[in-house]
Amino acid sequence: MSSPEFSEWIESDLRQIRDAALFRSRRTFRPLPGGRCVLDGQTLINLSSNDYLDLAHDQRLISAATAALAEMGVGARASALVSGRTEWHTKLETQLAQFEGTEAAILFPSGYAANLGVVSALASEQDTVFCDRLNHASLIDGCRLSGARLRVFRHDSLGKLKRELEKVTGEGKKIIVTDSVFSMDGSLAPLVSLCDLAEEFQAILMIDEAHATGIWGATGRGLAEELGVAHRVMVRIGTLSKAVGTLGGFVAGSSAMIDWLWNRVRTQIYSTALPPAICAAACQSLEIIQAEQERRCILFERAEFLRNELQQRTNVTIPSSAGPIIPIILQDPDITMNIAAELQEAGFLVGAIRPPTVPEGTSRLRISLTCAHQQDDLERFLKALDRSLARNVESR
Length: 396
Ligand code: PMP
Known about the structure:
44% helix, 7-stranded mixed sheet, 15 helices, Aspartate Aminotransferase, domain 2
């Protein structure tokens, strides 16, 4: 392809994205404390953040990071395997293992890198991976990269998964891969049934607790803890970028499994380790999460209030789920974009999610709450949403 042909190809693909109303522009945003942000000069209530426990701006995390920055500088300088693993990495891995109640834990540069790397290291051509259709892109990409046979199932009807598990015979591993809390729906994986199936068919169950770490379960370990199955899940992955308020992915498990991951997972071997200051902040965050349980209680109270209110609206669909992710399904991508723009004018930043991130016909506003949002913020949001729905959507 010549250089002009390449430019033409880029232009033509961009046109297709625009024609389908799926073009995404890049905006510069400034996070503020208290569930707020500034976007294009306007201060907004931020209903699109995964900082569920309002820790990203916490002064204690900032102080921990600042002290580690002064001590160790900014970058880690090399991959963890070569020479990038500082005492802050060791401390965080030890603390994560204690928090998760496992023998050991291992860090990754991001949750995406953890999912991509772990699935593609665990599975290979002779294996079969069973992947929920709503799994995060990083898990789906990991399944594809592994070269394993891929079987897609739905967590709201596990009959297909069981039938597919029955069909697989022979030597290869069977690996069931699922988010615990689905990021675009807020729906919960049926982890008890998945553990039962995994045990019945001797499959490895791997779960991504990205949206559950820190907020679900009696001590905030995640949905597996909430449902009493943490000890039955073979591979538990989490991220530090959401409720923990920092950055990085991790896996918690037996010492042998963690040693194996250290030696085999390419996204950890070939990528620079997390900045030490981020690890110091995450250590502080884990302490706060355990000491200040009220943050989770407030978060769930706010979410319950907003979900109940939204479910009374007749012109939108609110899937039944629980927790701080609340999708408002509007179906049409243009209407979704219009309403998101009007809400922004009214002072609220809300994620507008369209295909390919979600299936065709399910474009939505995705609300994610933090414990910093006040009751008054939510009441004002509901009023602005009602005004915008009245302009854009007919009652069903
Ligand atoms: N898993 C899920 C379910 C997610 O929603 C995300 C982030 N959007 C990730 C993994 C990736 O995590 P990170 O942002 O830490 O790379």
